[in-house]
Model the fold of this input.
Amino acid sequence: MMQGDQDWQGVDPDALASGDDGAKRDRQAIKKRAPRKMTEKRLHNIALAYLNRYETSEAGFRSMLERRVAKAARAHGEDPALYRAMIESEVAQCLEAGFIDNKRFAENQVYQQRSRGVSARAIYARLKSKGIADDLIDHALNMDERDDAAAAERYARRRRLGPYRVKDRAEKRERDLAALCRAGFSFSLAVRIIDADAGEVST
Done:
């Protein structure tokens, strides 16, 4: 949270440092205090602080700004729609500056998700929910050399399924197959991974 997000006027810093009851009341008052009225400068600071911490898509970034504006507007009895142009201007500036790039976001997300053993189907659904276009998702998936077979092996290893189980492998076979299928992998691939010999999973 940005330092400017909270109004510290009237709060005794010595009391805050001492941890006494007065400090607790001050902290509670800060939490309950309504957010300040939204301005272009404030929205820009919120945008930069967020982008400094998180990678996001255009849609995700816009949604974050809309939430912050709506919260401030409600606190001051305003219609959030009055700030629509301000939000779109901020989004446009960040796009032009290269702070937001859906193509880069999709490629980075695919790389990270594949490293965790996530299926193409699950990655596709996640990126769609972030407002990424189909062609950018396809491009990002094609750019990554790892396929579903490699991802399924990583998933099984991370979750200790099939050949990575320490015990009760046969008894847990159906459960392990179901786990891979729920993760978005095909049944035939799940069978191949789960029934492979330990240390010899072929991808």
In short: The chain is about 65% helix and 0% strand. The radius of gyration is 24 Å.
